[in-house]
Amino acid sequence: MTLARLRALELLTADIGVAEDPPGSNRNKYGKYWGFDGVAYCAMGVSWAYREAGAPLPDIQTAPSGKNGYWAYVPFGYGYAVNHDELTDNPQPGDIVLFGDDDHTGLFEQWITPGFSFYSVEANTSDEDDVNGIYVARRHRWMDWVHGFWHPEAADRLVGDGSVEFDEQLLPATAARSDDMAFACKAEGSDEVLIVAGNTFLSLAGRPWDDVLAGLLYEEAAGRLDRMPRDEAGNVALEVLPNPALNLRKAL
After folding, report:
1. Number of Cβ atoms within 10 Å of the Cβ of 91
2. Tens digits of per-residue pLDDT, 114-132?
3. Comparing 12 with 1, which gets the higher pLDDT?
4. CA 106 to CA 95: how far, in whole Å?
5. For the residues of 121-156, what is the DSSP string, one character each?
6. 94 near 101, Cβ under 8 Å?
7. DSSP state string for 204-232
8. What's the pTM value of the predicted model, to 2 decimals?
């Protein structure tokens, strides 16, 4: 497991060099992902990275694709950070940088000279055009162009790093939701975690909770698992399923 901000930074960094097609069109993977292609996409790159990391940003805007965690217009992000007291003077790797007059954004990577200059990873940039470029790049930035650093609530959530996968182990179950969307729960009377999908379930018994949680978060972010309930602190709090599925498995 890792912090969401570090995973988001890792994902966006892996896209360094990914360019618009054709150049100058603003057509790119992030626009396609959110269903709003052909427009400035620096914030869409940031919100893509956090969502793919398993910790979507708040629903600052409504994505045409219907995906949660969408953010495309930089000033809305700054306004949200101000209203929720999430601006910081001590940015951490993966925090969000809001540049200029809120006309550009990216992810903070590391200080070059603390308090003066730093590296950031940004979509929709280039050496020729800071705020409407044609690819993803690592940039050397100075504090005189920074409007604020945003440490979103999602930044410090624990998420999967993509290294945990579940072996297929589908067994008959009697519980299913009406839409048959896979969902995670705990079996009544035990700590066994189940993924229920239609008339089958996957038992995750015997695995360390941290590994199970990492896998669940990864599957949730990928859209293969219904959103899990959270407690007031934002931690996953699985519902308890009356256990016909568990009892049936024991009877096999």
Report:
1. 23
2. 999 999 999 999 888 777 8
3. 12
4. 9
5. EEEEE-SS-SSS-SEEEEEEEEGGGEEEEE--GGGG
6. no
7. -TTS-HHHHHHHHHHHHHTTSSPPPPB-T
8. 0.67
